[in-house]
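INPUT
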Amino acid sequence: MAERLGYPAGTRLLILHADDLGVAHSENAASITALEKSPLNSASIMVPCPWFPEIAAYARKNRTMDFGLHMTLTSEWKNYKWGPVTSKDSVRTLVNGSGYFYALVDSLQNYADPKQVEIELRNQVKKAYRSSIDVTHLDAHMGAAASTPEFTAAYMKVGKEFGLPVLLDGRVYAMEHDGVKNLLDGNTVVVDRILYMEPHTYERGAHKFYSDLLKNLEPDLNFLLLHPAYDNAEMQAIAIDHPDYGSQWRQADYDFLMSGECAEIIKAQNIKMITWRELRDKITRAK
Amino acid sequence: MAERLGYPAGTRLLILHADDLGVAHSENAASITALEKSPLNSASIMVPCPWFPEIAAYARKNRTMDFGLHMTLTSEWKNYKWGPVTSKDSVRTLVNGSGYFYALVDSLQNYADPKQVEIELRNQVKKAYRSSIDVTHLDAHMGAAASTPEFTAAYMKVGKEFGLPVLLDGRVYAMEHDGVKNLLDGNTVVVDRILYMEPHTYERGAHKFYSDLLKNLEPDLNFLLLHPAYDNAEMQAIAIDHPDYGSQWRQADYDFLMSGECAEIIKAQNIKMITWRELRDKITRAK
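OUTPUT
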């Protein structure tokens, strides 16, 4: 992949990515600051979420920035909810009795018709285009859209329709599903590693986790995802009873990005920053 | 009305009411504190809004409190949006091209089919009951549900179906509409005055406006509505470019309620506080 993008083999490529834009004002505000003032160079937007219009307005005005869509099929927080972009009657298998997405990926896997997953994913992309966002890629909130071979086929199909790379790693090659196999071709972007902090590493310190990770980054295409947000009243209320990926966690992600050390390590390690826009234009849309 | 509730004629009755619960965490948190620690004694909830689950959980646990529904047909803020509870295909005339409610009551009046208004209002009530809220009344966000005779007939009809009083004042008697006239009967609650701060009075000082109003309250059934919320990052972002009923305005409403003076005036003036639950049980549901 490095060579196809014009870099020597063995180059350590990095997309430094913020997930969950649109979920909250706190998330939007912190992610925008990190995109403008830290090495963070890519982000993805949750179209069904209440704060989508805020980040869509920003994306329209900042067209060189790298904004993809965080395909959303779950609504995981306890007291703050959203549902599909599609008219609910058309995607009944994606929603619970209150009309919201399920909280858990498990529930989605149990109940969702993959055809309805495809409809909803397509409508999220259409809504983003109607909002004049120059979409650079698709990825999957909580991994839901790539959590079964059937959903993955829908996710890849929608990406193909719009000429967009979708976040996938090597696990896609193990999926015994014709819909997936038929969509894998020379234009498919498959990243070498999807990297993110987990609860057991968070406990040992976010700053140490991220700085060690960057110092020991392996060659080829690395995708590091974070969730920058401010640890404030809004985010605390959203993440109530959920410390993992919660309000303090997101503040720690923001703090690492904004620390001088994040930029210094990337420079000292000669890590080459790339964006989904490059992948879209040089790989996915290559003739 | 005072006598029907068991008070001497000429008693000054007051419902001190918070609108817009569910719109934001800031609004929920400030309104809950004011309900617990100030003379505020009633509130209404916006069922379609993202923070509905938070206030619904609180209402379930605090069943003696007076919670009604703030029937919502508009989504008025610039960067933060919601849409109908009903599947969008069934209420197409209530939503814009992005699937949200219109921002303006004018747009609703221009485009909405009153039959679809009725469907949506009914589904908001049903969803609140499914969330186990002991609904005490209905009122109308931005007055939208009572802004035309046709909408008012739908709003009153839905109230009647569930045995709930709906907020109306004397203007209802002037509506030349059979649906409205046929629903007016001895069980209808019509308040004598709907009182609230407006931009020109806000400019002269919220505290002075509210304290003067309470000191000069007229006899019979007064409904005073406020919008308590905290002037914080979330509320500022919601109300961006909209100082009227904006973040500082809502903080001023909260501050007045929580000031000792609000309680002192009510006591000194011998104002009798009543709730929608009393009106519901003694008037709307009287045999």
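end of record. Chain B touches chain A through 31 residues (CB under 8 Å).
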